[in-house]
Amino acid sequence: MNTVTVKAFKVIGISVRTTNQNEQAAQDISALWQKFMLEGILDKIPNKIDTTVYSIYTDYESDYTQPYTTILGCKVKHLNEIPNGMVGKTINEAKYNKFTTKGDLAKGLIIKQWKAIWTMDLDREYTADFEVFGEKAQNPQDAEIDILIAVKS
After folding, report:
1. From CA 10, how far away is CA 71, in angstroms rounded?
2. How does 6-25 read in b/e, with b if 16+ C-beta sit within 10 Å?
3. Which of 51, 126, 39 has its CA nearest to residue 83?
4. Strands, DSSP E only, in 19-78?
5. Edge-first strand listing for the sheet containing 2-6
6. Closest Cα partner for 36 from 72, 79, 86?
7. SS3 31
8. pTM here?
9. Which among 14, 46, 65, 128 has most CB atoms closer than 10 A?
């Protein structure tokens, strides 16, 4: 884990309101990914900066035990053109603890890292946390994913 400052960015994508209670998020986020892939959402996002996919966790009611919104999308140049059925959000500049996890996505790679994060004594902001699915995430059996957790300065 290292601490980084991430400059503000804008994202457009699809979203779901969910909770970690009763494993609900696992179902909801899996369904969101399925929709993202099956409906070719990546190709429908206007003004993309690149094709890196961000899974953003935001609009927390309080902490990770309470409801929050997940957005799957891409960084964009502006939010002037948000297609029907999609959402746009500005992620403000913030300080983040960055975790990198590597392995097989089908074997719970990401949820295992999140469960470890939830047990850590991090001074979290609960503004916007996110996963980055870039070039190193292309091979699902040997993926490298960055998870960034907003922390207080």
Report:
1. 12
2. beebbbbbbbbebebeeeeb
3. 39
4. 53-58, 68-76
5. 2-6, 94-103, 143-151, 128-133, 53-58, 68-76, 9-18, 87-91
6. 72
7. helix
8. 0.94
9. 128
